[in-house]
Amino acid sequence: MITLKSAREIEAMDKAGDFLASIHIGLRDIIKPGVDMWEVEEYVRRRCKEENFLPLQIGVDGAIMDYPYATCCSLNDEVAHAFPRHYILKEGDLLKVDMVLGGPIAKSDLNVSKLNFNNVEQMKKYTQNFTGGLADSCWAYAVGKPSEEVKNLMDVTKEAMYIGIEKAVVGNRIGDIGAAIQEYAENRGYGVVRDLVGHGVGPTMHEEPMVPNYGIAGRGLRLREGMVLTIEPMINTGDWEIDTDMKTGWAHKTIDGGLSCQYEHQFVITKDGPVILTSQGEEELINQKKELSSFF
């Protein structure tokens, strides 16, 4: 079921989005050559405990196992949902960090610092029943100086995301978003992943409608004011097809070993256009951080 969000719900998601964005900004100083990838997971866990936010990915149901970490850390040819792990980052690596956070939570309701994030079953009791503001965003990081191949892939993927967001206006259709992303990326020789897509957000992290990064303009559900969506193109240097790690059921890789990049923002559709809720202040094409109260 598709729900149009109230001003109160959007305000809560905006607060969560500001916190998530601050974590992505903080990661810029952590993700460097010689650093253990596991430090990314530790940083996110520490920030959540300090500011009383729930890492909502811990305990997400999986076909083989429930997701056990606060972040997804996908490296180079990994497309999405790869586990954070002990790996020393190298010059030229491409790391994508995805997370879903919920809060802020009043400590009188739940003291997140007391939770054992390693106890997935315990965490599920909280993450699966969370009903407050949540935010979902993935960002790509070049480790050290990127190669031209990595830089071009990152630039095209980020631009594709913003092109998709610009199409998310009242009266347009879901297909308008996907068609714009697909045309932009494929015209530059890249593959657009089909198996993983954007989605609605709230009250849970994955809601209808699904928002593919490919499609036909003028087709699909019509967009309405009050929808909160994510757009998250996953763009490959080679073929669009991907493979899944069947040991865990989570990590996806490019089928041909090529590089993959992902950027993701969460936003609300207003009568005056999309407003990004997970902004890091980097947008140039979209008039960002308007007063949400002026739209409802």
Top keywords for this entry?
21% strand
Q: Would you tell me the overall average pLDDT?
A: 95
Taken in chain order, the helices and strands follow as HHEEEEHEHHEEEEEEEEEE
The assigned structural class equals alpha+beta
From the alpha-carbon coordinates, what is the Rg to the nearest angstrom?
18 Å
Got a strand count?
15
The largest sheet, given as strand count, sense and whether it forms a barrel, is: 4 strands, antiparallel
Low-confidence stretches: 284-290
Kindly estimate the percentage of residues that lie in beta strands according to DSSP.
15-25%
End-to-end Cα distance, whole Å, is: 22 Å
- What is the overall silhouette? globular
What level of helicity do the residues show?
25-40%
Number of helices: 5
Structure description:
This protein has 5 helices and 15 strands. Mean pLDDT is 95; it is low at 284-290. The protein has 296 residues and is an alpha+beta fold. The strands form 5 sheets. Strands 1, 2, 4 and 5 form a 4-stranded antiparallel β-sheet that branches.
What is the topology?
Blueprint: H1 7-27, H2 38-51, E1 54-55, E2 72-75, E3 78-80, E4 94-102, H3 120-127, E5 134-142, H4 148-166, H5 174-186, E6 191-192, E7 198-200, E8 207-211, E9 228-231, E10 234-236, E11 242-244, E12 252-254, E13 260-262, E14 265-270, E15 273-276
Antiparallel strand pairs: 1-4, 2-4, 3-12, 4-5, 6-10, 7-8, 9-14, 10-13, 11-12, 14-15
Helix pairs in contact: 4-5
